Amino acid sequence: MHVPRHVAIIMDGNGRWARDRGLPRAAGHRAGIKPVRLTVEECSRRGVEVLTLFAFSSENWLRPPQEVGVLMQLFLEALDREADELAAKGVSLRFIGARAVLGAELQARMAGVESRTAANTGLKLIVAIGYGGRWDIVEAAKRLARAAQAGTLDPDSIDEAGFAAGLALAGLPDPDLFIRTGGDQRISNFLLWNLAYAELWFTEAFWPAFDAAALEAAFGAFATRERRFGKTAAQLKAERC
Ligand code: FPP
User: Fold this and answer.
1) If you write DSSP's letter for every residue of 5-18 in order, what string do you get?
2) What is the tens place of the pLDDT at every residue in 5-30?
3) What is the mean pLDDT of residues 22-40?
4) CATH number of the structural domain spanning residue 228
5) In 3-state terms, what secondary structure has residue 29?
6) Ligand 1 in contact with 205 (CB < 6 A)?
7) 232 pLDDT band (50/70/90 cuts)?
8) Cα(97) to centroid of ligand 1, in Å?
9) In what order do the strands lie in the sheet with 177-180?
């Protein structure tokens, strides 16, 4: 089966999963850890190079402070609990997003696990926290503007590759497969630039119920898609011969 190099996931539906069981939303977020673990394991096993998970968007700061607190505490606990296992599996973990606004303790743990796993050669796991696709594009634009202002960059020389080099996922392949759980079919300000040619796959399943069969279905659907990148089917056939 043709395996995507980069899989990007919006893990949605934790709150509704909990509500359906008469549980507080926090229980849904806690139950969301298990499918994260499973997805990391399955992607490693299948030879996926990069897995990017949307854990907390720039807009999620607008949630009630109590829920934001629960999520931040959960990230901290998950990092403490899973870091050894991830390191042992050869996973390299990186975070993208505006991290200066996160708590000092969480920032320190994030930096610690990043440096500890940086040299690992297995799955590249990217966790987006405080991330927004528009924020990412604006940050890249600022970098270019500063370089132009300093006289080290000719604005007319800016091309797509040069712009992409300023984005959070610089140097990594674009996502091939985008998965969103929870039934909504939108990108919600995730990797706006990088998802340009991703194959989109949606499931009604809430994130805590996402399992190996669902992942298999997503990979199966991906394998059947013809990716033309703007070319015609005939051109692609000729290139394959
Ligand atoms: C969206 O569901 C989910 C989140 C905002 C949090 C995602 C976090 C986890 C899955 C926890 C573990 C993650 C890591 C990387 C350790 P929602 O709250 O929007 O659900 P709803 O749409 O049903 O309300």
Assistant:
1) SEEEEE---HHHHH
2) 999 999 999 999 999 999 999 999 99
3) 97
4) 3.40.1180.10
5) helix
6) no
7) confident
8) 16
9) 92-96, 124-131, 50-57, 6-10, 177-180, 199-202
Inside any domain, residue 1: no
Provide the pLDDT confidence category of residue 235 given band limits of 50, 70 and 90: confident
Is residue 148 pLDDT above 80, yes or no?
Answer: yes
Cα 57 to middle of ligand 1, angstroms = 10
Is the shortest distance between the CB of 14 and ligand 1 below 6 Å? yes
Q: Is the CB of 130 under 6 A from ligand 1?
A: no
Q: Is 145 part of any domain? A: no
Look at the block and give the residue holding tokens 């390299």. 92
* Residue 2 DSSP label: P
Q: How confident is the model at residue 236 (pLDDT cuts 50, 70, 90)?
A: confident
Query: Does some domain include residue 160?
Result: no
**C-alpha to C-alpha distance for 43 and 46, rounded to whole angstroms:** 5
- Report if residue 139 sits inside a domain: no
Question: For a pocket test of ligand 1, which of 9, 10, 12 has the largest count of ligand atoms closer than 8 A to its C-beta?
Answer: 12
Place of tokens 């600022």: 142
Q: For residue 208, give the ligand 1 atom closest to its CA.
A: 10
Distance 172 CA to ligand 1 centre (A): 25
Distant-in-sequence, close-in-space partners of 68: CB < 8 Å, separation ≥ 6: 60, 61
- Amino acid identity for residue 144 in this structure: L
32: Cβ below 6 Å to ligand 1?
A: yes
**By residue range, what is the domain housing residue 44?**
6-131+173-240
Domain count of the fold of the chain: 1
Closest CA to 13 of 183, 131, 146, 143: 183
